[in-house]
Design goal:
The chain is α+β, with helices and mostly antiparallel strands. It has helices at about 40-60, 65-75, 95-100, 140, 160-170, 175-185, 195-200, 205-215, 225-230; strands at about 65, 85, 115-120, 125-130, 130, 135, 145-150, 150-155. About 35% of the residues are buried.
Length: about 230
């Protein structure tokens, strides 16, 4: 999931271990081999999500599932794109990396300094500290909802936080309305859209997307908007 766009310039990470830049993951259970994976890519991503989520739960870490898999867990369509995303606080990165490595996963530190990467069952997993330049906070994780993700219960980013993070990621270099529109349609009744507007601030891209949602009658027009005045 590309949350921060191509033009992200963030301060150096503090307290993050010197991890390998790239490596192949070790098997979770070398003595028995890895399980046979489903041929369906979406199901393979879900299997990897469940495994990593279970490891984070067993390790006692505060986290929340994010991205397209979080949208799926809340009831959006099963279009899981290309990876699974988990949110953690920056200060928890060392402990999370240690838990995953103890389970046999190889954790890598990419050039971007707002996430860690690993691979589980051949699927890419991003462990994110910032959602579109916004630090993952305790309040955000406290608002997460523990719901089933294809039979495994785990904390999932609240719908309002999820949509706010997706809109915040829009930029001149990354503005895929087509990927976010189905999620907004599916979750519209679960989202506090006024809070999404406030969180979006003066972002022109977010404002354009919200206006599109109004014109498509996905959300109620904002009081005072040009679309509202025309009715």
């Amino acid at each position: 999931m590309t949350q921060n766009g191509d033009d992200a310039t963030l301060a150096p990470r503090v307290g993050i271990p010197d991890l390998p830049q790239a490596a192949q993951p070790r098997r979770l259970h070398p003595e028995v081999g890895e399980p046979e994976l489903p041929r369906d890519r979406n199901q393979a991503i879900l299997e990897a999500t469940k495994q990593v989520g279970a490891l984070l739960k067993q390790g006692g870490h505060d986290f929340a599932l994010a991205g397209s898999v979080a949208a799926y867990a809340h009831g959006a369509g099963e279009n899981l794109q290309h990876d699974a995303d988990f949110c953690i606080r920056p200060e928890d990165a060392d402990a999370v990396a240690a838990t995953l490595e103890k389970a046999g996963l190889t954790v890598c530190s990419p050039p971007e300094d707002w996430l860690l990467k690993t691979t589980c069952f051949g699927q890419h997993i991003d462990i994110i500290f910032q959602l579109a330049h916004r630090r993952v906070t305790t309040d955000m994780l406290d608002r997460a909802q523990e719901i089933p993700v294809d039979s495994v219960r785990m904390p999932v980013l609240a719908p309002t936080d999820l949509l706010a993070s997706l809109l915040a990621a829009f930029s001149e270099h990354h503005c895929d309305f087509g990927a976010v529109l189905p999620i907004a349609r599916a979750l519209r009744e679960k989202v506090d859209w006024e809070r999404v507007r406030r969180d979006s601030g003066d972002s022109a891209m977010a404002a354009a997307f919200l206006f599109l949602l109004e014109r498509l009658d996905v959300i109620t027009p904002h009081h005072g908007s040009s679309h509202d005045a025309s009715r």
